[in-house]
Structures are given as structure tokens and as C-alpha cells.
Amino acid sequence: MKRVFLTAAFAALTVYPTLSADLPLTSDVKDSGTLSIASGLDYAPFEFTDEKGEPAGLDVELSQVAAKLMGVKLDLKRIPFASQIPALTAGRIKVGWATFTVKADRLKQVDFVTFLKSGTVAAVLPENLSKFQGQNSLCGAKVAVQTGSAADFTTDKLSGECTKAGKPAIDKAIYPEQKDTIQAVLTGRADARLDDTTAAGYYEKTSGGKLIVAPGVYDVLPLGLAVPKGDAATAEMMRATLQALIDNGTYKPILEKYGMALAAVEKSRIITSVDQIAE
């Protein structure tokens, strides 16, 4: 039996039968009977709202089966991606379930539990693909990125490499959401957009090739959900749950549904410091 409630704050509560394995649930989750997570619901195919206005996407489905395995309700609160780390550091939430790229600057504020891997790529109009055949081809181009995303920081890094090579810097255009970066390229306000390989490949597939992924993958890194810095109990609860979903065969079909099989990992890891990023 499943019941779904949507509030004006766009919180979703889904009730599942108790199927809890021997998972190390935190006292908060045990006492409340609820797994509360934050999601932006604005980044297909990971988290978005479907045509009925319901939460959907790879991250959403993983969170639903995670709650089911724990034997608790799922409380999904809509918090924009850029606001999730501040919400974690302020103690407003315990789990930011987004596809955060694990990076040094973020590790100063939060810890991560990994469940995917990805890199950053450029996506361009098909007619412009021949102009973008590698890293140096981005030099001098106007590139759209979502604020605070991994692509935002990768663009700065690539731009620095351009100037070191005596080429013009990348003209970075920052937008609040990924859909805005897509529209910027489609309407000619930007030459390219930088995004992670999984999302860019998904959009190329589902849009019928309106934007094409250009050659070159930059900064291959693990992706994960975020938890408060030093909250070992929440981190281990999420790691154990994700690993159980990987091991019991639930995880991979969800990734395959969204064309994300290449982003799959065999082991969920807790990352608390920079030296743990590389396996």
C-alpha cells in the first residue's frame, strides 16, 4: 500500500511496508519512522517533477527504495541544489540527496556517501560540434553553467588552463538551474554548456539530439549524497542502505531505466576528506 501527500512546500511523504534489513538506522529515523531528505527537483534525470507534478527521477526512485528497505516513510522536502549544503551546515536537514560531485571545497562543509561516478562534458548545438573537439576549443567560448555545480568549478579550472596556454579565457555565464543553461545554448546566448556526463548524455538522448556531447571528459569524480560534517551515524546508515540496494539487485535497474548504467558503482563509500576521493 502506498500513500503520497504533497504539501504547499512540495514535501512528499510515501509510506511503505516494513521491509527493514539489519540496517544501522539513526535514532532520529527510528523514533520518527521517517527518512527526511532534501531534493531540488529541478535536475533531470536525477530529480524533477513529472507531468502529474509528482517527484520523479533516478535520485527520487533510489530514495524511495531506500526508505522501503529501511521500513520507514520518505519525507522529500524541496530545497534548491545551491541551498542544500547551507541547510546541512545549519542543521536544518540531515540528508541532501542530490548528485553532488565530491570536491575538496565541499568536503570542508559536509561529508558524502557515494552512489555514482561521473565527469564533466560540454554540450553544444549539432551544427557547432566541429568547433568543439577537445579542451582547448572551449577557450574564448561563452559557456553556460549552473551556479555551484561541479561544472561551475571545472569551467574556472579549464579557463585558467586556457590563459596559461596563451589563449583567451572562457566566458562563463552562470544560471540558477540546469534548464536555464540548456535554453541558453538552444537560443544562441551561449556557445556551450558544461554539465556532468550522465545528465548531458540523458538530455542528448531524450531531446533527440538537440544538444550533442562534445569530445572530452574532464574531472572524473565520485558522485554522492551529502550529510552533515562529522555525522558518522547518518553517513553509515545511508552507506549501508545504498550498499544493500546495490547487492540485492535493486540499484542497477533504476540506473538502466534512466540510461545511467555507465555511472554505476559496485561499492558505496563514505568520503570525509580529500585523500579518500580516489579509490
Q: Could you write a compact summary of the structure shown?
A:
The protein has 279 residues and is of the alpha+beta class. The chain is built from nine helices and 14 strands. It is globular and about 55 Å long.
* Tally of individual helices: 9
Structural class call reads: alpha+beta
What is the percent of helical residues? 25-40%
- What is the first-to-last residue Cα distance? 40 Å
Q: Just give the CATH class of the largest domain.
A: Alpha Beta
Gyration radius (Cα, Å) is 19 Å
List low-confidence stretches: 1-19
Name the CATH superfamily assignment of the largest domain: Periplasmic binding protein-like II
Mean pLDDT, to the nearest integer, reads: 90
Strand content: 25-35%
The CATH architecture name of the largest domain reads: 3-Layer(aba) Sandwich
Features:
alpha+beta; D-Maltodextrin-Binding Protein, domain 2; about 280 residues; about 30% helix; 14 strands; 2 domains
Description:
The chain has 279 residues and is an alpha+beta fold. It has helices spanning 27-32, 58-70, 81-89, 104-107, 150-164, 178-186, 197-206, 232-247, 251-257; strands at residues 4-6, 12-14, 34-39, 48-49, 55-56, 73-78, 96-101, 110-124, 142-146, 171-175, 192-196, 212-213, 218-228, 270-271. The chain is globular, with a radius of gyration of 19 Å. The longest helix is centred in the C-terminal third of the chain and has 16 residues, at 232-247. It folds into 2 domains: 4-117 and 221-276, Periplasmic binding protein-like II (D-Maltodextrin-Binding Protein, domain 2, 3-Layer(aba) Sandwich), CATH 3.40.190.10; 119-219, 3-Layer(aba) Sandwich (D-Maltodextrin-Binding Protein, domain 2), CATH 3.40.190. The chain contains 9 helices and 14 strands. Helix 2 packs across helix 8. Strands 7, 8, 9, 10, 11, 12, 13 and 14 form an 8-stranded mixed beta sheet that branches. The chain has a 4-stranded mixed beta sheet with strand order 1-2-6-3. A two-stranded antiparallel sheet has the order 4-5.
